[in-house]
Amino acid sequence: MYRCPALLSSYSAPSTSTRPSGMGRARTGGRAVARFCRQLHALLLKNLAFQRRNWKTNAAIAAFPVLLCALLVAIQAMVDRELDRPPFRCGCEGGQCGIQHSTPVQAMSCEVPAPPRWPALVQLPVVPAFVHGQSAPCSNTSCRPVSVLLTGRNPGLSQSLGRGLFPAMSASDTLLMSEPMNSSSSLHQLSKVAPGSKTLPAHELFVEPGLVPNQTLYVIQSKCLLPPRNVSGTSDGGMPLQLDVECVQGLPLWCASSSVINRRLYNGYKGANKRRRPNEFLAGYDFLDTSTGRFHVYVSYNSTFSRDNGHHSMTVLRVARLVNMASTAYLKVLRGVNAEMRLEFLKEMPKAAIKMKLDLTTLLDALFFTWTVQLLLPVIVTYLVYEKQQNLRLMMRMHGLKDGPYWLISYSYFLSLSGAYITFFAVFGSFIGLDIFRLNSYAIQFLFFFIYINLQIVSAFLLAPFFSSVKTASVVSYIYVFGSGLLGEALLKLFIEDTTFPRPWLVIMELVPGFSLYRGIYELAEYAATGSYMGKPGMQWEDLNDPINGMKDVLILTSIEWVLLLPVAFFLDHRPEWHPIFLSGILSTKHSSPSYKANPRSKRVFDDMAKTDVFLEHKVVKRLLKEMDTRNMIICHNLKKVYRGSNGNPDKLAVRGLSLALHKGQCFGMLGPNGAGKSSFINMMIGLVAPTYGTAYIHGMDLRKDMNEIYENIGVCPQHDLLWETLTGREHLLFYGRMKNFTGAALMKAVEESLKSVNLFHCGFGDKSVSKYSGGMKRRLSVAIALIGNPKVVYMDEPSTGLDTICRNDLWNVIKQAKKECTIILTTHSMEEAEELCDRVGIFVSGNFQCLGTPKELKTRYGDTRVLTITTAAEHEEAVARLIAGLSPSAVKIYGMSGTQKFELPKREVRLDGVFGAVEAARGMFPVHGWGVADATLEDVFISVAKDARAFHVLS
């Protein structure tokens, strides 16, 4: 097994700086800490290696818009292929194609150079209103009249006009309705009466759904004279007609006022929407101040005709006949029954053939683009929280990394990733024909998205300190992304389109980054839609001055937010104690302190005086602080940590007034059972948690105030390995070596010596990713990281956990060499490790030291027994036991088998010469095959002290 010289012997190049060490500039063992540019370079190289190993993840994130665009193209191709099939393509029959062979759906794709003329129909309610006291002259008992609501200031005239809304059909008209229909006859006859249909109208009147074959045409009469019949013929466009013609009675109902009409129409709307039997009326007429010299009428109708709970908004096609009915009734009142005002037909404008296809621009609104852009926010937040959750950033801080380089490199990475993401989205969106990218000015788009992705990155840095769990951060981030988008679509969009909404309030709402993104994309989409419809470009620079256009406000607002939030986020990240969560934590800790402070101080002094070595350590610490002699020393003064209880549990005093003074070149070992408070002490010393009371001085730097400077002078081997799984061991050491100002050949030599010293150099282990390391290999790498760069203080939390005997001995040799130039504090459960490495040992139980001293001193002071081992024939065991009992009545037999026995002898009762005499006496009586006597081990001392301490705390 290769055994290398000390790590530090390879790093002893002196610093070229002659500036004295002190608080002005941190130094590490004679080597100045890397400055900003070198830290920046070290972090950049580490991140490049890390991102190179994660290239699949980065590529997937950046290419997500490309995949999204490809999915949209695939969906469009599939839908377009379906729309090109007969159910949607212009109908054909007998080799001829045209609108006369089409359904209402197919008619949208047909070429119509001469649109057909259709009679104007009224929309009949599917379930007419039930009117008490009225009956219709129908043979079918379920038939009810179609009601019209009337009101007006002149009741007599208004009721006369109401009766004239439904002109009677003459005998000749009834006869004509029995003959085959053609274009001219049908339009002529239907213009004299009030025809209607229960079929919903189409969006365009190239085909009238109420007159397609196998539909029912209703003629509304004040008194039905037309019996039900079936007629056939052809329409003006050549479409065959096969209709059932029925008569339905029109019944005018007088209402006291227009509000009554509105209420009844609204009840019909409400009933249709609640799946109840709808109370529908044909229309409502308010003739207002109509007189013989003035015609003034308001026509009300229900625009929510229901079919399977769906609503149709194109009811304006059914309004023309309602107006004509009122006009004809007014002329008949003035000029007699022969006066008439005919509404012959309705028709559309000519149109060319249109191939039906999916329009992505119409389908994808601002909500889709808002969600797509904001999906980067959870990625950035989870990345930042992951480094905090795994304490990776804290590990880098402990090796001197400043906040400036970390921010600059992280910000650059996120900006590059976001820039690639948006660029791919815009380029491929333009490629597949998304008008929002294709028509609007690319310069405006670049400025808008550049400002927003910067604001999004700053927002992520601002949000990250609020979370300590990646899962929580991810869930909350996605809730924000989808929630802000939905609120923008449901709420902000209404306010944008409402020109009466106060503009200042709109600007205040856009202070939320998600809302400002939605507003900007909404404006781009609106200009793109207008440009596509008008055949013009979308948003240009001159359009920013349009008062209706909100893009200028968005650009200004997001720019100001970016500039203002950037230093705020940096300040909170640099000074986490000012963050609201940290403030609440400090306040909660102070609330928990009175219960501890209320304990009598005299009791603690009495306890410490009972432990002479601990009491003397307190006095030494006070003397050193009084003399201000803190150079080249670690001094802990009355250090306490209290964890506030929750759910009714009492406060937990993890560390109780610890005082300790250590010199350079010492290795101090903390021994203690699980839960004694060792990790809490180490966590306070390395800045993971803040002390509740007291402080510590590391070579003159205060733990409470100078933690950033302390980080530059310490090395840490944590209890749990803080490593990047995708980086190799060599890359870890290269990064931390550069952080300690190693460059060039010195850096390579230091890294190789470090790998050799912890047995990671051979077999190429140093060049394998950490994810392939065993637990022991990770521990060895953590020790190498802690020792690289000659730190002044090294904290090791159980450094040899998981190592085999050979590797553990090699690691101990490394630590022995390292402690010559620094101070080492380690915690361990191995008594052998403590005896091998530690110059001083402290047994830590229930939050405080129970004893302090060298291993030899503790064994002498607290090891009050000796162990005698003697081997004889089995038949002589009782004789040996009687002999030992005579030597010491308090002796205890702790082992016995096949003639070999072990006895515990109190030192206060038995001296060594007495033991020798007893052995010689035994030899005179029977053969003694072997014997030995030994003092108590450190493990025996530890067990004894721990038991006594626990018993004392239970009693107190």
TrEMBL record:
It comes from the Eukaryota. GO terms for biological process: lipid transport. GO terms for molecular function: ABC-type transporter activity; ATP binding; ATP hydrolysis activity; ATPase-coupled transmembrane transporter activity; lipid transporter activity. Residues 9-20 have a biased composition (Polar residues). Its main location: membrane. The keyword Cytoplasm does not apply. Keywords: ATP-binding, Membrane, Nucleotide-binding, Transmembrane, Transmembrane helix, Transport. It is a multi-pass membrane protein. GO terms for cellular component: membrane. Residues 637-871 form the ABC transporter domain. It is found in: Membrane. The chain crosses the membrane at residues 59-79, 363-386, 406-434, 446-466, 478-496. Pfam families: ABC_tran, ABCA12_C. Residues 1-27 are annotated as: Disordered. Belongs to the ABC transporter superfamily. ABCA family. CPR flippase (TC 3.A.1.211) subfamily. This is ABC transporter domain-containing protein. The gene is LOC123415900.
